[in-house]
Recover the amino acids of this structure.
């Protein structure tokens, strides 16, 4: 991931919080296959397991996901594991997470630089994290470890999404979360046979939060005002992020 120092997010704690808040990640693999493309990607919701804040740790955490067995990317992973005689992929995989709020930034928002020199161009504000690591694939539907992995994965993912994303906590007058046990057991068993499980060790992680920090204070204020003037939900959230990131940049600058 290319990132200027002003945009780089180096805090592991912040990056893991970002992943929990934006669990839909794009799994990308590069696996030689006679039947499928070399490079493949799939959107997958992930569960973040126990992790460490130690940047020197060889494994900083683990991500668990699942995908359709009939997905060509699944078939390539199963083929590679079958040929190697292990359920671990030899190739490194990458998972990309992107923040929900992102937006085009017009040069018209730069109220300090545009009127004086005109030396401004459009850009895009966004936040993202990239994970690199090795994947273990649970694809043998007859193996107890596959069944156990998928049962735990489905339970943990649904609980996280139901409570943290949907807000169905069962408290303060809110309804309770949907649970896997709400569906017939036989139905869930059939669904489990149609998917494979994936566990990825987090060996490297890069993060980027690009919210106009590279601009002068005057231009940042122009961006904040410009997004607020859109009078949209996403515009309001982008404006708040630009303000927050700008304050963080100014604080770091003044502490040097």
């Amino acid at each position: 991931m290319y990132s200027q120092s002003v945009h780089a997010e180096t805090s592991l704690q912040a990056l893991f919080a970002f992943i929990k808040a934006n669990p839909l990640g794009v799994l990308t693999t590069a696996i030689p296959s006679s039947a499928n493309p070399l490079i493949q990607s799939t959107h997958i919701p992930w569960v973040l397991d126990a992790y460490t804040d130690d940047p020197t740790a060889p494994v900083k955490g683990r991500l668990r996901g699942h995908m359709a067995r009939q997905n060509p990317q699944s078939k390539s992973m199963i083929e590679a594991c079958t040929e190697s005689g292990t359920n671990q992929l030899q190739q490194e995989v990458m998972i990309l997470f992107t923040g929900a709020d992102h937006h085009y930034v017009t040069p018209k928002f730069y109220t300090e630089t545009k009127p004086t020199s005109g030396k401004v161009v459009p850009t895009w504000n966004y936040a993202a994290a990239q994970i690199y690591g090795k994947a273990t694939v649970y694809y043998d539907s007859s193996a107890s470890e596959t069944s156990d992995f998928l049962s735990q994965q489905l339970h943990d993912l649904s609980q996280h999404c139901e409570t943290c994303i949907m807000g169905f906590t069962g408290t303060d007058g809110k309804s309770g979360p949907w649970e896997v046990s709400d569906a017939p057991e036989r139905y869930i068993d059939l669904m489990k046979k149609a998917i494979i499980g994936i566990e990825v060790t987090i060996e490297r992680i890069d993060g980027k939060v690009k919210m106009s920090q590279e601009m002068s204070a005057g231009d940042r204020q122009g961006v904040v005002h410009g997004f607020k003037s859109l009078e949209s939900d996403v515009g309001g959230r982008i404006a708040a992020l630009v303000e927050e990131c700008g304050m963080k940049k100014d604080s770091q600058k003044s502490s040097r």
The radius of gyration is 22 Å. The mean pLDDT is 94.
